Amino acid sequence: MYEERMEQTCEALKHSLGPFGFLWLCACAVYPGLRFPLTTALGTRLAQAVGRKPPDEDEHLALFRLPWFRTGWMPEELRLALLRRLDPGLHQLVRTAIEDLLVNSQPAAGSDARPGAPPGAMAGLDVVRPARGWSGRLRLWLAAPAAGPEQDAIFVHYMIGKVPGPADLALNRALSRLFGTRLAGWLDRPTLMAALAATGAGLLAWATTDSLLLPAMRGSTVLAERPIPQMVALPAGEFWMGSPDDEPEREKDESPRHRVKIAAFAIGKYEVTFAEWDACVDDGGCNGYRPSDEGWDTDRDRRPVINVSWNHAKAYVTWLTARTGQSYRLPSEAEWEYAARAGTVTRYWWGNDPGHDRQCEFANGADAAAKEKYKDRTTVAACRDGHTETAPVGSFRANPFGLQDMAGNVWEWIEDCWHESYAGAPSNEQVWMTDNCEYRVARGGSWFSNPRNLRAAYRDYFAPEFRNFALGFRVARTISP
Ligand SMILES: [Ca+2]
Ligand SMILES: [Ca+2]
Ligand SMILES: [Ca+2]
Predict the structure, then answer these.
(1) Is there a cis peptide before residue 256, judged by omega within 30 degrees of 0?
(2) Which of these, 176, 336, 163, lies nearest to 265 by C-alpha position?
């Protein structure tokens, strides 16, 4: 069943790219990162080998239009399937081409490249100078980013002359599941060292010469194993932002209610989870910050990340943008309310809910159980929602846009600076900034919030360094026209 689907995918790719384009794609699957110079070099070598002209711009574009050239990674299973379809006669050619590019791509004499630039620099490959001796080398291995090519099982197997199969990755995956990615990386390195020592040429030569490289590729593909937020594309539209004057429990800062026009954009279906945050840290992003989960570790991976400041949230979207090549960001306040209302005009997207007794089906707020545990909660929902603290994302019903937990679970950071009222607010989706921005907006209320604060129009604000157990975020993404 699975094999069949891979077969069909490969056939479809062959059909759309043509025989040469498909051959080229198979060669590109060796390397974990998508690098323009590497792609071009492989295309030129392959063209020579099969006796045709080097690929032209249209052929490059056909390749770059494929989804993983935009997202920055190719699924492992597809990489394996493509490599197994590469003509065995071409395997050595591809290996040599990659080695050449990594080792021999030196800045030309007299060029304005900075002096002492490392090998590979001209090819845009970010490389680290080799260490002398085993202990120095080992230190470098251990310091290498988890997503570096030297940790990519497919790449390593291929470069030592072995066409990898699914079984070659199974051990790695099992270890990752059992011990987390860091430890699996440790365990994989001795295997890799043994492979190096056992090979007379090829990678061994590459690893022991003075020009030993530890390419620390940014933008490489092991991202396939790293969870990133699932996005929902929202259509352009118009809505009334803020609450009407007669809405019960409203606050002044929700005035004046005003009409806002929103361009199409994408927003996370869920709040960013601990698993997604950890992926950023494991990859060297998010300033290495590991927020406390308050000991709520049942289903920790699926719970929304908490104890993150606005600055932390910004670090996450910066990492995600660099990793994927797509422009991720925090939502503007107007975008957030548009997404939360999803076409509705009532206090909550599920209705006016005057007695707060319907909330428990739709949102994780402070409920009867929360009041028993946290005595200072005053008004709570007159029902039980099953979660005294955070709930795994997506535990409650989706709004008409298919988004979950817009109301409740955790507060969500917004890009905008805080304003006491909507007087002078933009009439479109733009972020509203001021010169002196002491506070940033947060929206949606949390598991700790009174029902009033879960209303679609409710607004709050915190200093950008502030963090607590009820505050997280969700990402947005610009859709280019
Ligand atoms: Ca609750
Ligand atoms: Ca929320
Ligand atoms: Ca308010």
Answers:
(1) yes
(2) 336
Contacts of 30 (CB under 8 A, 6+ apart): 83, 94, 95, 98, 154, 155, 158, 159
Q: What is the pLDDT of residue 360?
A: 96
Å from CA of 471 to ligand 2 middle = 9
Distance CA 452, CA 459 (A): 11
Distance 312 CA to ligand 1 centre (A): 25
User: How many Å lie between the centroid of ligand 2 and the Cα of residue 353?
Assistant: 18
What are the domain boundaries of the chain? 2-213, 231-478
Strand partners, 467: none
Q: How far is the CA of 367 from the centre of ligand 1 (A)?
A: 5
Q: Is 102 or 422 the better-scoring residue by pLDDT?
A: 422
**Residue 217 in contact with residue 147, Cβ under 8 Å?**
yes
Question: What six digits make up the tokens of 465?
Answer: 């360094």
* 402 CA to centre of ligand 1 in angstroms: 21
Nearest to 463 by CA among 272, 312, 340, 328: 312
Tell me how far the alpha carbon of residue 460 lies from the centroid of ligand 3, in angstroms: 5
If you measure from the C-alpha of residue 296 to the centroid of ligand 1, how many angstroms do you get, rounded to a whole number? 14
Q: pLDDT confidence of 345, banded at 50, 70, 90?
A: very high
Q: CB burial class (10 A; 0-12, 13-18, 19+) of residue 446? A: buried
Structure tokens at 112: 């304005």
The pLDDT value given to residue 188: 45
> Which ligand has an atom closest to residue 420 CA?
3
Query: Which residues have CB less than 5 Å away from ligand 1 (the ion)?
Result: 364, 367, 385, 387, 447
Class of domain 231-478: alpha beta
For residue 247, report the distance from its CA to the centre of ligand 3, in Å.
Answer: 14
First CA to last CA across the chain, in angstroms?
A: 37
Q: How far is the CA of 412 from the centre of ligand 3 (A)?
A: 14
Yes or no: say if 32 and 222 are a contact pair by the CB < 8 Å rule: yes
User: 213 or 135: whose pLDDT is higher?
Assistant: 135
For 193, the 3-state DSSP assignment is helix
Cα 300 to ligand 2 centre (Å): 16
CA of 364 to the centre of ligand 1 (A): 4
Ligand 1 midpoint to CA 330 (Å): 25
Residues 6+ apart with CB under 8 A from 254: 242, 243, 247, 422, 457, 458, 459
Q: Which two tokens stand for residue 232?
A: 């929902």
Give the model's pLDDT for residue 146. 54
Query: pTM (2 decimals)?
Result: 0.57
